[in-house]
Amino acid sequence: MQFSISDQKGVHIPEELFGLFFEDINYAADGGLYAEQIENRSFEFLDCYGDRGDYYAVPDYGYAWSPFGEGEPGKMQYVTGSPVDPKNPHYLRFTAAKAGQGFCNRAYRGIFLEKGKKYRVSFYARTASYRGNLTVSVQKDGRVFASAAVACVLAPEGTWQKWNRYETVLTAEEDAEGAAFVIALDRAGTVEFDFVSMMPCDAVDGVFRRDLVEMLRGLKPGFLRFPGGCIVEGNTMENRYRWKESVGRPEGRRANFNRWAVHETSAENGWHAQYAHYNQTLGLGFYEYFLLCERIGARPLPVLNVGLACQYQSFERVEVEDPAFDEFLQDALDLIEFANGSPDSPWGKVRAEMGHPEPFGLTMVGIGNEQWQTEESDFFARYEAFERAIHEKYPQIRLIGSAGPDVVSPRHTMAWDFYRKKAAQKENFCHAVDEHYYMEPEWFFDHADFYDGYPREVKVFAGEYAAHPQKGMNNPRANNLEGALAEAAFLTGVERNSDVVILASYAPLLARAGYAQWSPDLIWFDEKTVCATPSYWVQKLYAQNRGDWTLRLDGQEKELAGEGIFVSASLCRESGEVIVKAVNRNPEEKELKIALAEGLSAKGPVRIQELSGRPEAFNSVEDPNRVRVSERMQEETDSLKLPAHSFVVARISR
Ligand code: AHR
């Protein structure tokens, strides 16, 4: 098998081509990237039920909390009246009948501690009829792994005092798994608590789980699309994502139920599914998303609600003609001011007061998530209203449209007709159109040429894609090598067509094992381990070996695809290397002879990175390293061995 690489440049590969799509699904935010260890820290959780058009949430303010101690338990009451912040009105009133009684938090599957590591604990408390102190600890089966005494500020006898914020640091004496977080009183009395938090001291910016941030950084992401996904839309207008409620001090961010709490509800389960308590504290809010972008070197790409609740799950919307629709437009303008405005502007001031006087450099905004046009949704009119409002004030902001939930239906064709027609009439009408496709691996192999014939005038954002060899909740097997190779094959076509596909992101990004509503996902994790899937390795290989220009193959890709080999070639400006990417989907090894054009004159050596194995092989938090990239150097510059079922990246020195 042979192919020749021309020294003629094809298309320029945009720097931000490969990016990330973050959605708070699968406990990606609370219980995931947000390093908070305590579940339901502000006593606001809701238990969610329902079906399309009829969702409801029942208060369960004590969820994840229980009394702790031997014998008769202390009394736990979830009350309101004078909260720390009225946006989160409930708090715990705890009464101990004797010394040593306390309460504990289940913290998802229990607290995980690493010996020697430090954890910052903070909470608000108010005392009345209590003259003692508190002990904060992490324990399991009577064994204490970390503890600290906290001296209470005492109110004058018989009076309530104002809320005091307490802070202490726990140091883990040993490793611990599945432990309880406990606060105990050292004598009888009543104390009220709110915003009980425990964060590892090594959390990035005091907010993000360090190991997960490292994984994201490893992908060298060009951009970060956030915060969804369907959570932007909500199951109802009530639980849609409102960015303004996600900024300012965390105590004032109104907790809400997560759209994925009602995933897979049915008559059989009483419209109450496995993750009915999936809530959002918004501890990870828009300020933190922008900060994360800085930390991982990605351009921010926030997505806005356009007055529509999830088109799959709801009939709710605010009509474009309704004066209430203006609030959605205003949210867009204010968001741009929040990100880029001077600290003297109202929203720039909010950002500055949160600790970031410099602008975040927002250049792109997503108008709606996965919206499509129907007579009722009238999405196109919504897009036009946003476009007018935003460009009137901020003509340089680049807007992302939506082509709906698939690339094979009339919804998709209709969307493209709309954007192409409008873009011909108005400059800068749409920077790129967001396409979503979750398909079987076969589709990805068969459509490696998907973008070859795309008209070039409006660009594509492949905003959510993934090969689905299997699906289901909590299914790491769905992330097998076969799926990853299908994605790698498809991406040869994305790279070749990166004059039209200018942004691309796999979806979803994160999944907490045992808490995932959707599989496959790019990165699996639990409280202890982070696991790169084969798809993660594919993304990483693409991002780290992007190249600046494609080199022309003039149709040879098509012939090779017929033989189950998918190739791309590009040139790295800085090093001068030729980068070859090749997928072999065959069950036997293939040898690929490479003829480089004279102008490319290779000297070698060649650095080879390779991902290969059984098509059904997968990684999991229990066994995270079954499939991984191996590396080697070779001297020959004119031949590549492609193992059975493999993705090989070769960097040829010149
Ligand atoms: O990525 C999971 C979901 O898929 C997203 O929330 C939505 O945009 C799409 O339907």
TrEMBL record:
EC supergroup of this enzyme: hydrolase
Hydrolase in keyword set: yes
A molecular function (GO) term: alpha-L-arabinofuranosidase activity
EC number assigned by the record: 3.2.1.55
Keyword vocabulary terms for this entry: Glycoprotein, Hydrolase, Signal
Catalytic reaction(s) noted: Hydrolysis of terminal non-reducing alpha-L-arabinofuranoside residues in alpha-L-arabinosides
Domain of life assignment: Bacteria
GO-annotated biological processes: L-arabinose metabolic process
Matching InterPro entries: Alpha-L-AF_C, ASD1_cat, Galactose-bd-like_sf, GH, Glyco_hydro_b, Glycosyl_Hydrolase_51
Annotated ranges, domain Alpha-L-arabinofuranosidase C-terminal: 463-646
Family, similarity comment: Belongs to the glycosyl hydrolase 51 family.
Protein name: non-reducing end alpha-L-arabinofuranosidase
Organism, as annotated: Candidatus Eisenbergiella merdigallinarum
Lineage: Bacteria, Bacillati, Bacillota, Clostridia, Lachnospirales
